[in-house]
Design brief:
By secondary structure, this protein is α+β, with helices and mostly antiparallel strands. It has 1 helix and 4 strands. The chain is globular. The N and C termini lie far apart (34 Å).
Length: 80
């Protein structure tokens, strides 16, 4: 499937962390979340993922994704 605009059903901005997004995937009744960000326009960089069991996204998972995102951009800046 190709979409010009991705609905919030599949991709949601994490309001507490600038530039961090959550991809939502459902498979056979199981709900999964994958954190990501955009780099240089259309490049999507995937970070940590987890199986979601409650309505609220666990704070620890958001913090982990934020740390990974910061590390990614720091390493990119250094040319690694």
């Amino acid at each position: 499937m190709t979409l010009e605009v991705i609905p919030i059903t599949y991709l949601k901005s994490i309001s507490s962390v600038a530039g961090l997004y959550e991809i939502r995937v459902e498979d056979e009744g199981n709900i999964y979340r994958i954190f990501c960000c955009f780099d240089e326009g259309n490049l999507v960089v995937l970070f940590n993922g987890f199986q979601k069991k409650t309505q609220k996204t666990p704070k620890g998972e958001i913090e982990r994704a934020e740390h990974i995102m910061k590390e990614y951009f720091e390493n990119k800046k250094k040319g690694q």
